[in-house]
Amino acid sequence: MVKIEQNKNGREVIIEENPFSRFLFINTKSAWIWLILRVYLGYSWLMAGIGKVTSDAWTGENAGTAVRGFMEGALSQDIAGWYAWFLETLVIPNAVTFSYLIAWGEVLVGLGLIVGLLTGIAAFFGAVMNMSFLLAGTVSANPVMLMIAILLAMAWKVAGWYGLDRWALPILGTPWKVTKK
């Protein structure tokens, strides 16, 4: 359904959601789907992050070693020129900083998704990390995790309904309105 409204600047066209999108991304009845995907993805990130946080090569005495080795390996592959520049000029010279950012970022994304706090933001940063790993040539579970993260970010309004977002987002000023039919 297309709805045309008049506003002070002229006409504004509002295209209504189709029933399937409305169910998935607006209706809290779909929240159980997002709960399953959210906890799965969160657990994956949390376990990966804990593995890194407890590793000497990531956050210990030899912090930065794993990042430097991984990125130098990525540079030996056929990767995008702009990404190679990014790795050579920013990541590798600051490998220790990026090591901590990645390790703790994975833990925080995992915790945020598991408890459903700032779900859309956590999913977005998870997607950024997945995309970075893909650009560096690591496939593994990254495509699946990236797709789930994109869907969770799109469903941010209801993805954290069974989680802390249900209470946190209204307190933070999210423009939620509960409408009953």
UniProtKB/TrEMBL annotation:
The chain crosses the membrane at residues 31-50, 82-101, 108-127, 133-156. It comes from the Bacteria. It is found in: Membrane. Keywords: Membrane, Transmembrane, Transmembrane helix. Its main location: membrane. InterPro entries: DoxX (IPR032808). It is a multi-pass membrane protein. Pfam families: DoxX (PF07681). One of its GO terms (cellular component) is membrane. This is DoxX family protein. It comes from Ornithinibacillus sp. 4-3.
